[in-house]
Design a protein that fits this description.
heterodimer, A: 419 residues, alpha/beta, 5-stranded parallel sheet, 18 strands, B: 163 residues, 7-stranded mixed sheet
Chain lengths: 419, 163
């Protein structure tokens, strides 16, 4: 019996002759990542473990993004201590102004290659699946353990094969593919599973949109969401990394738990209504809802592709007088690219606030949180109650076209009605 | 190893870690301080039920969402001795085990438990006693039982460093 891609990657990182879904195993990590929330927490747990040094400073990377730029004195203290810890350990640290949002940074900076295992102290570490890497989110103690041992414990997941078929209509993006899938599977439908994406619709996606898809694998409960490496992957990695990698794929006779098919030509832009990423409807069914704030950014949809879409809609138009709009490029690189392309100019002229890369308002910490009774459209990945600020606020998830259209109209509309 | 306490019931599915511990409090590193914000977005009054040793009884896909470890850390600090749910989100269940807080899926026990029920878990056998009624949960892999027995991943690694 053959193996799935997820099983092959784990087997290559375990001391086992064979692995099947449900098996318990220790798994070696190629990269261990933490941000400025999990990082300080993990550093404290390492002390409790009696471990002075991380297992390999070359394989540990820390990114400041959640608290950055420091939102208050406590955050400033945590960031200061974190940088000092990184310097002492000799590990890479992407400080304010030098990186951006963790998952985007790791992918852009060549930390992620196909077939690798990457654990991150953030649930959206499944984003690395966009490059065929078994990226998976863990808690801070788990990450401390991985920093100490270079490995973590894992139950081998089953695999759900997802086939994206056909051509996408206009204004349908990677965001809609994954929202459609979460609607199909349910928010716990992939628990104990890895998602593996295939079909001509998957092959046609660029890395930015693959990131949007893989990023939300965890919103269906999955360990990770894998795009097997192909020509798009190879081209993206050219000149970006010196890490060796080989393209693996699932064996033809590998046993999968389930197969799901999403017909792309039937999709329309989608919206996840409050308060669950699984509460998905076509944009037409959400149309007319008044919007107080639009947020375009985050590790799912703050890429240059998203910003180009948003700018195309916002250029020459203005944000509705009763609406606020925030644009957050996911990294310094994307920020510079958007600047060079004149996208930021279009946003500012339209009346948007353009922020530095940060996780800030995505999880209700700072830089754009919303008030009781307010309603938001956001390109982020979670719309749980209280996620973006007040517990009495309402968050809608959508792609960058839909978000930008809502900013112009002051309410949810199909982007075709604005463009 | 056994864990025992009075049931505190959160009878809903898909309870996420954002409502159990909102993002604005994540920067807090002190466990006792975290406990003051537990369940803030879900129902802050639940904190009043956390007196003495308690067992949290929950629905399906419990702990979905963010990897924030503040949730099980705050639970532990608030006197919750174990979590029995219909099912768990992966990262949350890992986090509980890694902090030495047993997290067991046992839908039958959840169905039988009421607020204040006396619950006792025997980890090795997966036996859950709810007011004298016995239920069998699927047992955890031996390594996870060992982790909980050691008090979590940090003390487990420390003990290996010392030997």
């Amino acid at each position: 019996m053959g193996h799935t891609l997820a099983e092959k990657i784990l087997l290559a990182h375990a001391d086992a002759d064979d692995l099947s879904p449900g098996d318990f195993t220790m798994v070696r990590c190629d990269v261990v990542m933490a941000n400025d929330l999990g990082g300080p927490h993990a550093a404290r747990e390492l002390l409790k473990m009696g471990v002075d040094r991380v297992f390999d400073p070359e394989r540990v990377v820390i990114v400041a993004d959640h608290l950055m730029p420091a939102k208050d004195v406590r955050a400033a203290e945590l960031l200061k201590a974190l940088k000092e810890w990184c310097d002492r350990q000799g590990v890479s640290y992407y400080d304010q102004g030098r990186g951006g949002i963790e998952h985007t940074v790791l992918i852009e900076e060549g930390w992620v290659v196909p077939g690798s295992v990457i654990v991150g102290a953030d649930s959206h570490s499944c984003t690395y699946g966009a490059l065929g890497s078994f990226g998976t989110g863990l808690g801070a103690t788990d990450i401390a353990g991985a920093m100490a041992l270079g490995s973590f414990w894992q139950i081998v997941p089953g695999t759900i094969l997802v086939e994206f078929d056909g051509d996408r209509p206009a204004f349908v993006t990677g965001k809609d593919l994954i929202l459609a899938l979460i609607a199909e599977l349910g928010v716990a439908g992939a628990t104990g599973m890895a998602l593996e994406f295939g079909g001509d619709g998957a092959a046609a996606l660029g890395i930015d949109e693959r990131m949007a898809v893989s990023n939300m694998a965890v919103e269906a409960g999955a360990d990770t969401g894998l795009f097997p490496a192909d020509g798009v992957t190879t081209e993206y990695l050219l000149g970006r990394t010196e890490r060796p990698w080989t393209a693996e794929r699932s064996d033809g006779d590998a046993e999968v738990a389930r197969q799901v098919r999403i017909e792309l030509d039937r999709l329309t832009p989608l919206v996840a209504l409050p308060h669950s990423p699984g509460n998905v409807v076509p944009v037409s069914e959400a149309a007319g809802r008044k919007i107080d704030q639009v947020y375009i950014g985050n590790c799912a949809n703050g890429t240059i592709t998203d910003l180009r879409q948003a700018a195309e809609l916002l250029r020459g138009r203005t944000v509705h007088r009763d609406c606020r709009a925030i644009v957050v490029p996911a990294s310094q690189r994307i920020y510079r690219q958007a600047l060079a392309e004149g996208l930021l100019d279009a946003f500012v002229e339209a009346g948007c606030v353009v922020m530095t890369p940060t996780c800030g308002a995505c999880l209700g910490m700072h830089s754009g949180v919303i008030a009781p009774g307010e309603t938001a459209v956001t390109t982020t990945n979670r719309n749980f109650k209280g996620r973006m600020g007040s517990n009495e606020a309402f968050v809608h998830l959508a792609n960058a076209w839909v978000a930008a259209a809502a900013a112009v109209a002051g309410e949810i509309v199909h982007p075709a009605d604005v463009a | 190893v056994t864990f025992e306490g009075a049931a505190v019931v959160v009878d809903r599915d898909d309870v996420d870690t954002d409502v159990m511990y909102p993002g604005r409090f994540i920067g807090i590193l002190d466990d006792a301080e975290m406990a003051k914000h537990l369940f803030e977005g879900l129902d802050p009054r639940l904190r009043d039920e956390l007196v003495g040793d308690t067992v949290l009884v929950a629905g399906a896909n419990f702990g979905t969402g963010s990897s924030r470890e503040n949730v099980p850390a705050a639970m532990r600090a608030a006197g919750i001795r174990c979590v029995v749910a219909r099912s768990f989100a992966r990262i949350f269940q890992r986090n509980c085990i890694n902090l030495g807080l047993p997290a067991i899926a046992c839908p039958e026990a959840v169905g039988a438990a009421r607020r204040g029920s006396r619950i006792r878990l025997e980890l090795e056998t997966g036996t859950v006693d709810v007011d004298g009624r016995i239920f069998r949960a699927a047992t955890l892999p031996p390594f996870m039982v060992e982790l909980v027995g050691a008090g979590g991943l940090a003390p487990w690694i420390r003990s290996r460093q010392e030997t």
